[in-house]
């Protein structure tokens, strides 16, 4: 039972926050059902990472793991600036995208500020904003699950401080037209911050992503990225922010010193400089496998929403609900994500795994649907 903050003497906003609930773990499902094998396709993890040079760099980092990573911070920041055609003053690091999101909320939000979030989207935006005392305005997506930018603009008031955007969106995997995003960012007044979360953007096809260098000329834009998804380094916890220099300076001021571990820093640098060929081969595989899985699911009565990420958002056949189906699949050794928490009890989110993992899921779906 959640005890009230009144009796614990905590911040009053904590009562309004809901804990972030991660996907089921392999260990918990193995134990619960007494299984010998579990295929985890519920947390949007990249089953192929980290890549070879990143793994080698991780081992190298152990030789100096007793030291604080001052130089490694600088080196990774310089590499990130170079690959993104930015100045080093436009980049800062964080311990995964989640840490960056939380730090951005602390940087920007005052109590009573209005914050706009799409519905559905990544739930952490709501929780960190509420913790800072924000008033949340939900803006439903359109029927095709793209952002309703007109509705967002109409929702902006003189109290609006921040708009969270996620492209591709989570849990849908849907991308918004790059020109629409660019026009929306340009149209929003200078009093409103826009935070663009690109955790899954590396999976987008070339030519469909917004031009970040041009967009960052907007003084009120912040872009967030991570090494967790495309580079398969979710456990290393390396994320970063791109913004104008004064924003980066303020971000660094309130960020915990050395919040990214040395192993993650070594791996991220190697991934950027030496693992691109392997990473893009995996991107091609995921794209092809996502298409194959989408066709297979459609044949089974699902309605698959077109995705540009490493996961699939799909409506179950009529009469089925995600909580029930996900529980039945776990009992058979497959973890996917139910979508009740996003307000979509008839939908599931499925990570694109290795071919044999995806085939195992399809075989178990045939047993429960």
UniProtKB/TrEMBL annotation:
Domain Aminotransferase class I/classII large: 37-364
Keyword Amino-acid biosynthesis: yes
Alphabetical UniProt keywords: Amino-acid biosynthesis, Aminotransferase, Histidine biosynthesis, Pyridoxal phosphate, Transferase
One Gene Ontology molecular-function label: histidinol-phosphate transaminase activity
Class of the enzyme per the UniProt entry, highest EC level: transferase
Family indicated by similarity: Belongs to the class-II pyridoxal-phosphate-dependent aminotransferase family. Histidinol-phosphate aminotransferase subfamily.
Entry cofactors: pyridoxal 5'-phosphate
Subunit (UniProt): Homodimer.
UniProt pathway annotation: Amino-acid biosynthesis; L-histidine biosynthesis; L-histidine from 5-phospho-alpha-D-ribose 1-diphosphate: step 7/9
Descriptive protein name: Histidinol-phosphate aminotransferase
Gene, per the UniProt record: hisC
Catalytic activity: L-histidinol phosphate + 2-oxoglutarate = 3-(imidazol-4-yl)-2-oxopropyl phosphate + L-glutamate
BP GO terms, sorted: L-histidine biosynthetic process
CDD domains assigned: AAT_like (cd00609)
EC number(s) per entry: 2.6.1.9
Residue positions where N6-(pyridoxal phosphate)lysine is found in the record: 229
């Amino acid at each position: 039972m959640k005890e009230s903050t009144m009796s614990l003497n905590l911040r009053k906003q904590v009562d309004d926050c809901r804990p972030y609930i991660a996907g089921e773990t392999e260990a918990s499902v193995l134990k619960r059902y007494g299984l010998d094998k579990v295929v985890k396709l519920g947390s949007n993890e990249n089953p192929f990472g980290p890549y070879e040079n990143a793994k080698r760099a991780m081992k190298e980092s152990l030789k100096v793991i007793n030291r604080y990573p001052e130089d490694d911070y600088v080196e990774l920041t310089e590499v990130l600036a170079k690959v993104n055609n930015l100045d080093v003053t436009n980049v800062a690091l964080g311990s995964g995208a989640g840490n960056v999101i939380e730090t951005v909320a602390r940087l920007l939000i005052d109590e009573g500020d209005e914050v706009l979030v799409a519905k559905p989207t990544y739930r952490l935006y709501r929780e960190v904003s509420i913790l800072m005392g924000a008033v949340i305005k939900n803006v439903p997506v359109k029927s095709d699950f793209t952002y309703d930018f007109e509705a967002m603009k109409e929702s902006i008031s003189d109290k609006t401080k921040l708009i969270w955007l996620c492209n591709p969106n989570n849990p849908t995997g849907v991308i918004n037209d790059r020109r629409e995003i660019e026009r929306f960012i340009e149209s929003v007044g200078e009093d409103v911050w826009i935070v663009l979360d690109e955790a899954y953007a590396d999976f987008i096809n070339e030519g469909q992503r917004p031009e970040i260098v041009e967009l960052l000329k907007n003084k009120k834009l912040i872009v967030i990225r991570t090494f967790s998804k495309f580079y398969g380094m979710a456990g290393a916890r390396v994320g970063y922010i791109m913004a104008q220099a004064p924003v980066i300076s303020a971000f660094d001021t309130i960020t915990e010193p050395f919040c990214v571990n040395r192993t993650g820093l070594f791996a991220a640098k190697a991934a950027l400089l030496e693992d691109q060929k392997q990473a893009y081969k995996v991107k091609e595989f995921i794209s092809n496998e996502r298409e194959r899985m989408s066709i297979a699911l459609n044949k089974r009565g699902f309605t698959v929403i077109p995705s540009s990420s490493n996961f699939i958002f799909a409506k179950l056949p009529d009469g089925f609900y995600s909580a029930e189906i996900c529980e039945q699949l776990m009992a058979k050794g497959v973890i996917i994500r139910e979508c009740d928490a996003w307000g979509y009890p008839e939908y599931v989110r499925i990570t694109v795994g290795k071919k044999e993992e995806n085939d195992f899921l399809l075989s178990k779906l045939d047993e429960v649907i």
